[in-house]
Amino acid sequence: MYDQLIRKEQKLAVIGLGYVGLPIALEFARKIDVIGFDINAKRVEMMKNQIDPSNELESTAFEGCCIEFTDSLEKLKEAVFYVVAVPTPVDEHNVPDLTPVLRASETIGKVLKKGDYVVFESTVYPGCTEEDCLPVIERISGLKCYTDFKIGYSPERINPGDKEHTLQNVVKVVSGCDSESAEEIAKTYELVVAAGVHRASSIKVAEAAKIIENTQRDLNIALMNELSIIFDKLGINTYEVLEAAGTKWNFLKFFPGLVGGHCIGVDPYYLTYKSEQLGYKSRVILSGRIINDEMASYVAKKAIQSIIKKGVDVSKAKILVKGITFKENVSDIRNSKVVDLVNSLKEFSVHVDIEDPHADHEEMIHEYGFGLTQNIGSDYNAVIVAVNHREYENYDKSYFEGIMAKDGILLDLKGVYRGKFTGLNYWSL
């Protein structure tokens, strides 16, 4: 398999060309022949014109790549090595929604041939690849794993907006259904990952490794969020406490904040879901999830309380929220906890404006029913800097004074402006 790919006698296909799949497809396409497959024809056309629909990659990233973008199953059949990089979200009850990954499995089943390889990159609970996806592939293809085709798992480690920790320089975990497939998959990924690969002993181990990476971060951030609530009651600044504690060599530097996006705020629910299926109800993981999910409401209440203390009629108050994307310096608004913050504020009948240099107005309306403010006012009773976009970093005191009413308050969730100016009502997590 590996030899055929590097000699360009066969092709590799990436199914799902979002913020994970597209960078993987392009990186492979610099070494071997690649088919980029996505069910969204509009996105396919954009990529044919060297446009990344996720706004993560420049047009230059497409240059020098042997790749054909398509939504055609017939074209997909030309591949022999399939990489699945579709989303794995949760539903409104925080239950894993396997629809995308199961539909991708159906797609593979329709095009699979004897001797082919299938590698999943989507984040799932341990056992999902072999217990949920594999039976679908076998049923539709009529082929059997091990004897007719091989399967593996290599969890994605793409971090949106991060230009430092890229696919090439972050160690890749790989696994296969047997020793032969594990080695073939490892060699294939070594083509594009300069940092090297880690060969996990089984597919379940690789699945578990991925899911605890984000669960660990989620729990550490939950601890920081709970500490920020306690320290606020004590009248001390969380970031000053963390700065002092961080002088110890083994103190882990995590910070409070809103936890959204496709990974940290979602993946732990996959693990707790599987745990409950096995008869064990998580306590620590779910406790962390509860704290992080409640932070948007907590911040909204702090803003409203601050306005009331100034004697302002809340029904006549105005609040500006700066930043709506799920994290800094990206355009992705999906699963943004800032949206929860906005909705919590609106429950108090306060007027809320939203500004973000990276988000798209029409996409906001489509996804959430409200858009971005075209013209920022000058009389906000509170300004909440929810996402620390690079465009916000150099604001000075006069900027905030120019957009806030008298006695207005700046709520700086990431502590970006801590200690930068005095004489302004200020609060941070």
Structure explained in plain terms:
It is a single chain. The chain is of the alpha/beta class. It folds into 2 domains: 2-201, NAD(P)-binding Rossmann-like Domain (Rossmann fold), CATH 3.40.50; 219-428, Rossmann fold (3-Layer(aba) Sandwich). The chain is 39% helix and 15% strand. It has 14 helices and 13 strands. It has helices at residues 2-6, 21-28, 41-48, 73-76, 99-111, 128-141, 179-190, 203-234, 238-245, 267-277, 284-309, 337-346, 361-368, 397-403, and strands at residues 11-15, 34-37, 67-70, 79-84, 117-120, 150-153, 172-176, 197-199, 318-322, 351-355, 380-385, 404-412, 425-428. The strands form 2 sheets. The protein has an 8-stranded mixed β-sheet with strand order 3-2-1-4-5-6-7-8, with helices on both faces. Helix 5 runs parallel beside helix 6 and helix 8 crosses helix 10.
Chain-wise SSE layout:
Layout: H1 2-6, E1 11-15, H2 21-28, E2 34-37, H3 41-48, E3 67-70, H4 73-76, E4 79-84, H5 99-111, E5 117-120, H6 128-141, E6 150-153, E7 172-176, H7 179-190, E8 197-199, H8 203-234, H9 238-245, H10 267-277, H11 284-309, E9 318-322, H12 337-346, E10 351-355, H13 361-368, E11 380-385, H14 397-403, E12 404-412, E13 425-428
Parallel strand pairs: 1-2, 1-4, 2-3, 4-5, 5-6, 7-8, 9-10, 9-11, 11-12, 12-13
Antiparallel strand pairs: 6-7
